[in-house]
Structure formats: structure tokens, C-alpha cells
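Support request from a user on the community tier.

User writes: "When I paste my C-alpha cells into the form, the page sometimes reloads and wipes my input. The last time it worked, I copied everything first. Here is what I submitted, just in case something in the input itself triggers the reload:"
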């Protein structure tokens, strides 16, 4: 059963992701009856992801601030603030934060079900604490354990 979700910014769960950056979880899988997962990803300049797929969910990126270079199905696209990209399930993709000041993205997974990956590959963010170090091995382990992401190659940048 889907429930109504209403919360303000101070009520959102924040997590340090081992792939780099801080996630602010806006709507969880369980809250939307697995319709979607929505989070804000605040990332530093130079962050890059390995080439990967999500076999069971589509991923939509909306850039709030900054810019990323998005690699999708062998092609690279610059995506700036206000830009949107939709990546269908199973399509290999990766991104590199190309702006010097970092970037903030909204990431939408439809349907939901990907929260397990991000939860396994992150820790609660502690106010005033230092973020976790990037650890792609831990992200890879979470991907294998949950089946919600498949790493198919190194960062293509």
C-alpha cells in the first residue's frame, strides 16, 4: 500500500555513499510501494562512476547545480544545471562531475528496488563529521549482494 509522504528538508535521511558524495534520500522504495526511489546526490568535482547498468530500473538524472559528463551507451553528453537525462534499464552508463565546484543531482530510479544497493554501500551522515572515503570495492560488493546494479567496466573518462 502506498502512503502519503510529506517531510521537510531537516527530516530527510542523509548518507555518505562509498561511491563518493552525500545522498539526501527524498522518497524511499518502501514509501512509494516500490514505485520509485528519489535522492539528491551532492558530489565533488572529479567524482566518477564505473560503467554500470541497473537491470531492473530506469535511472533519471536532473542536474540542480554544476555539470556532469554523462556516458551513455558509448556516447558522452554534457549535462548542465537544469539538464535532464533518462537512462533505460540495462543501458550501460557512467558519469564524471565536470564542474570545478562539484554538482548536485536528483537521481530517480523507477521502479523502486534500488535502495538496498545504496543502503549497503553507504553510512549515515553525521553532522560535523567527515564523509567516508571512496571505496568502489564496497560498492561492487553491494551491487553483487543486491543485484540492483552491475558493474560492466571501469570509468570511461
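"...and here is what came back when it finally went through:"
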Amino acid at each position: 500500500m502506498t502512503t502519503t509522504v510529506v517531510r521537510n528538508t531537516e527530516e530527510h535521511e542523509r548518507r555518505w555513499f562509498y561511491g563518493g558524495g552525500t545522498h539526501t534520500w527524498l522518497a524511499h522504495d518502501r514509501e512509494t510501494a516500490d514505485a520509485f526511489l528519489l535522492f539528491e546526490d551532492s558530489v565533488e568535482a572529479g567524482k566518477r562512476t564505473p560503467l554500470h547498468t541497473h537491470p531492473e530500473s530506469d535511472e533519471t538524472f536532473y542536474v540542480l547545480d554544476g555539470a556532469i559528463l554523462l556516458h551513455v551507451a558509448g556516447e558522452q553528453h554534457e549535462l548542465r544545471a537544469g539538464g535532464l537525462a533518462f537512462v533505460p534499464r540495462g543501458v550501460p552508463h557512467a558519469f564524471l562531475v565536470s564542474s570545478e565546484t562539484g554538482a548536485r543531482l536528483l537521481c530517480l530510479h523507477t521502479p523502486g528496488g534500488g535502495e538496498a544497493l545504496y543502503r549497503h554501500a553507504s553510512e549515515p551522515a553525521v553532522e560535523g563529521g567527515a564523509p567516508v572515503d571512496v571505496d568502489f570495492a564496497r560498492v561492487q560488493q553491494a551491487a553483487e549482494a543486491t543485484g540492483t546494479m552491475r558493474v560492466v567496466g571501469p570509468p570511461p573518462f
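Agent notes: The reload is a front-end session timeout and is unrelated to the input. The chain has two helices and twelve strands. The two ends are 42 Å apart (CA to CA). Escalated to web team.
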